[in-house]
């Protein structure tokens, strides 16, 4: 995992945008050099000197006017054609039905795979090399989906789905980020795209489709009971647990299999899980999960249970 870098395209879509940016920059630099060069040259070469009379004055030259109209016109046409080509490569029309639906929430991403029924949060697994048609939605305010190495930016608009294509040339982990200010924890709406060999992706998908792990220890069983009897169950789903099907907050069926907690703010370890349960408002002020003032014993039990949900 490394920091995201918009100048390191890792998909055909991102490369089309990058290439357009490079060609445009070269054109702009050439224009800048030509214009400033001509000005600097004229300043020194045609400087008025002591005793010289004014140069010959003339007005209007059809030839020069045609040249200085035609050259910028051709440059604009050239950039226009390149831009159209780039748009076609970076943003082809959506597939008839999406492979993925990514929904922005304050302050996390819900990830649905409609074809398989897999549900994830903040972590998007994709098979490397395959373009996925992604529908972008929002449950509350404007968010913006952006994984610089793989995609263009695209807004998640409540009630008005948008679309992008998501693809990675090779396996790897790509970091994305919400890029539309959406509230106090806008900065902590990370997206982790995990591109894998197709066989590994299938394996992940099969594992995600399993119901949740049943508690295997006494403490975990008590943790599950706590989950069911306290506020957790009003917002979070855990497949295989009776009554736990709310979709307000991230689905926890396989929460322990994810790499990060709270949309990227913590690495997902049992210790950090306990820390998060203890004081979410300290770690992520303004997140919609309140502090429940759980006792140390309750934290151990709930933490143990959630950490077994691989
Ligand atoms: Cu969501 Cu910014």
How would you describe the overall organization of this protein?
Helix 4 (218-229) packs across helix 8 (296-307). This protein has helices at 12-45, 62-90, 198-209, 218-229, 232-235, 270-278, 280-283, 296-307, and strands at 100-105, 108-113, 118-121, 123-127, 132-138, 143-145, 154-156, 162-166, 172-177, 190-196, 260-261, 266-267. Strands 3-2-1-5-8 form a five-stranded mixed β-sheet. 37% of the residues lie in helices and 18% in strands. The protein contains eight helices and twelve strands. The chain is elongated and about 100 Å long. The protein has 310 residues and is an alpha+beta fold. Strand 2 (108-113) and strand 3 form a beta hairpin. Bound molecules: dinuclear copper ion.
What gross morphology would you assign? elongated
Class inferred from helices and paired strands: alpha+beta
Order of helices and strands: HHEEEEEEEEEEHHHEEHHH
- The overall strand count is 12
- Average pLDDT: 93
Ligands bound to this protein structure = dinuclear copper ion
The residue ranges in which pLDDT falls below 50 over 5 or more consecutive positions are: none
Strand order of the largest sheet: 3-2-1-5-8
Describe the largest sheet. 5 strands, mixed
Strand proportion? 15-25%
The number of helices is 8
Determine Rg (CA atoms, Å): 28 Å
Helix content: 25-40%
Query: Gap between N and C termini, in Å?
Result: 21 Å
């Amino acid at each position: 995992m490394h920091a995201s870098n918009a100048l390191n395209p890792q998909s055909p879509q991102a490369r089309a945008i990058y290439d357009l940016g490079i060609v445009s920059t070269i054109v702009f630099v050439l224009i800048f050099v030509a214009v400033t060069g001509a000005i600097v040259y004229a300043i020194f070469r045609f400087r008025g000197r002591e005793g010289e009379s004014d140069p010959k004055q003339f007005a209007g030259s059809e030839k020069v006017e045609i040249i200085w109209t035609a050259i910028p016109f051709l440059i604009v046409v050239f950039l226009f054609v390149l831009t159209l080509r780039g748009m076609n490569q970076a943003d082809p029309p959506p597939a008839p039905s999406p492979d993925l639906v990514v929904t922005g929430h304050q302050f996390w991403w819900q990830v649905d795979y409609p074809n398989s029924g897999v549900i994830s949060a903040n972590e998007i697994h994709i098979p490397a090399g395959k373009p996925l048609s992604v529908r972008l939605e929002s449950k509350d305010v404007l968010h913006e989906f952006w994984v610089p190495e793989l995609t263009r930016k695209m807004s998640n608009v409540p009630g008005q789905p948008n679309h992008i294509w998501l693809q990675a040339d090779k396996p790897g982990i790509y970091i994305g980020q919400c890029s539309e200010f959406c509230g106090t924890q806008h900065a902590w709406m990370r997206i982790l795209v995990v591109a894998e060999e197709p066989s590994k992706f299938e394996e992940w998908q099969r594992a995600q489709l399993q119901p949740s792990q049943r508690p295997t220890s006494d403490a975990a069983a008590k943790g599950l009971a706590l989950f069911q009897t306290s506020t957790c169950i009003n917002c979070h789903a855990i497949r295989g647990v009776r009554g736990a099907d709310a979709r307000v907050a991230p689905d926890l069926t396989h929460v322990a299999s994810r790499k990060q907690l709270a949309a990227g703010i913590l690495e997902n370890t049992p210790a950090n899980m306990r820390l998060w349960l203890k004081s979410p408002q300290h770690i992520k002020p303004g997140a919609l999960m309140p502090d429940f003032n759980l006792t140390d014993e309750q934290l151990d039990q709930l933490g143990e249970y959630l950490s077994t949900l691989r």
